[in-house]
Design goal:
The protein has about 325 residues and is of the alpha+beta class. Helices cover about 35% and strands about 25% of the residues.
Length: about 325
């Protein structure tokens, strides 16, 4: 593996977590959810993929334990279970976490019941936030240049937020942009790779230190708060780069259609697998539809039809004179 990529992995991709989400759909249309995440303990506690926590709508039970399998030293498993089945759509919209929803519906008719599962994983908008990163999503390139537009995005968006809240001369902001460009160019030319591992707010302060006397009072303290908030989003995306996700759904009845990755005929469970590349620039949507035929209702209906037909024939029979 190229030296630069090893360095990159050492600073940003130290996490590698496998996340399993299992949804069990019951005959009455309610469903339960269980999360299992396996990896290093610190990675299980970070904010890129947070297990649900108890709120005023749902109660969740979470446990954390170290695995006892051989060769899995320092590997932990985090499990979170919905305390009781629900019929309510689950929606997770925290911007500092992976955003997604889980929805199950059940429509009952006389002859059959229809079940629908849907889940939508919101994309990370990497192409919009860091357009140059898209060329390096496979992280096999011998290059760290994708980090430059990422840092530039954080700086430029932070300055926009600051401008919305404060009145400041446009000339000052033009000088800030020029100074940041000069500083980043210097880092690239000197190949100071370690510089990219630091917090963005620290890099920002160092970049503008030559002109700090011309900046407004409390500029650095205010900008640090803004930059740190935006960097949380960036860290969420980088932490997800080596995470894998598997959604499995046990659905009643005969499967009619689905876009699942794999279907288990043995236990009527369907599976989807996705990773960072699948959600970097586009939504990842999952769906499944099944049907349960109500044989008793059909038999009862046929029996009624048969009895009606027999009654009709009985009335039409020839009468004795």
């Amino acid at each position: 593996m190229p030296r630069k990529i090893l360095f990159f992995l050492g600073f940003f991709l130290v996490s590698c977590v496998e996340n399993l989400v299992h949804i069990q759909i019951f005959d009455n249309g309610s469903f339960s959810v269980k999360y299992n995440s396996i990896g290093h303990k610190n990675d299980l506690l970070d904010s890129d993929f947070i297990h649900p926590t108890t709120n005023d709508k749902h109660s969740w039970i979470t446990s954390l334990r170290q695995t006892n399998e051989s060769g899995t030293e320092n590997i932990w498993e985090k499990e979170t279970i919905l305390s009781s089945p629900t019929k309510t759509k689950l929606t997770f919209t925290n911007s500092s976490n992976l955003q997604y929803d889980i929805d199950v519906s059940n429509n009952s008719y006389f002859f059959w019941d229809l079940y629908t599962f849907q889940s939508n994983i919101k994309d990370l908008e990497i192409d919009l936030k860091y357009p140059e990163i898209v060329n390096y999503l496979d992280i096999d390139e011998d290059d760290l240049s994708w980090l430059v537009p990422a840092k530039r995005y954080i700086f430029s968006e932070s300055i926009k937020v600051f401008q919305e809240k404060n009145t400041i001369d446009k000339i000052i902001f033009d000088r800030i942009d020029n100074q940041i460009d000069t500083y980043i160019s210097y880092i690239e030319q000197k190949d100071h790779e370690k510089e990219f591992s630091r917090k963005s707010s620290e890099i920002f302060i160092d970049a503008l230190s030559p002109m700090k006397r011309r900046l407004p009072k409390n500029f650095f303290s205010d900008m640090t708060i803004i930059i740190d908030d935006l960097e949380k989003e960036f860290e969420k995306n980088t932490n997800l780069m080596l995470d894998g996700f598997t959604f499995s759904v046990a659905i009643p009845g005969h499967l009619r259609n689905t876009n699942a990755t794999f279907i288990s005929e043995n236990d009527n469970t369907i599976y989807w697998e996705f990773d960072f590349n699948d959600i970097a620039t586009s939504h990842f949507n999952m769906y499944a539809h099944s049907i349960v035929i109500n044989n008793l209702s059909i038999q009862l209906f046929l029996l009624i039809i048969l009895l009606v037909f027999i009654g009709f024939l009985w009335k039409k029979r020839p009468k004795k004179e």
